[in-house]
Amino acid sequence: MKKLKVILIIIAVIAIIGGAMYLGWSIAKPEKSERKVTADVILTTLHARGFLVTQTYVFNEPILIENKEGTWKDLLFGQSIEARGNMEVNLGVDLQKLAEEDIEVKSTKVVVSLAPAEIFNTRLVGPIDVKNKQGILKRVLDSDDGYNQALTELTKQAEQAANTQELLEKANTNAVEEVTRLLQYIVKDKEIEVLIKQVEENIESSI
Description:
Blueprint: H1 2-28, H2 39-47, E1 51-59, E2 63-67, H3 74-77, E3 79-94, E4 103-105, E5 109-114, E6 118-134, H4 136-141, H5 147-162, H6 165-183, E7 191-196
Parallel strand pairs: 5-7
Antiparallel strand pairs: 1-3, 2-3, 3-6, 4-5
């Protein structure tokens, strides 16, 4: 019986000592420092993403190029090009254009103001179907397959189609959602608000 009491006393002492040591360590251990979120931290994070593509459109509209003067010379030197091809236009926001004044860190909220969406690039997807009619002498003296002219005109037409209010607004909406998602990784304790600056001259009428 005495032996059992001794064992219980030893166990109690060990438990008390262990508890005291744990309590002391808990009080003395350094607190984990959190990275303070500043405008500079947010700016660096967003700049690292470069141009953020938020919307892609593919257009397939035919074009007609008439290199003619409307005179008898057209029979000899005129040219008519009909072409069609899939043109991909990528829209988005250039996050490297963000400045420190575009970011406001408040006590309970972070506000980021983005420039409106713009065209990032336009590229041909697949082949171009080109029908090229040339005057008699042009075929002999200055033959042109019409490919480069067709590509230039298809690119111009696709960018005009993409640069409308309706399509740009879709790209803007996606930009707000994507940047908000990116900020959620670094802003943990504040509300996030992402805005699009109003620059009307960047938006063409979709009439």
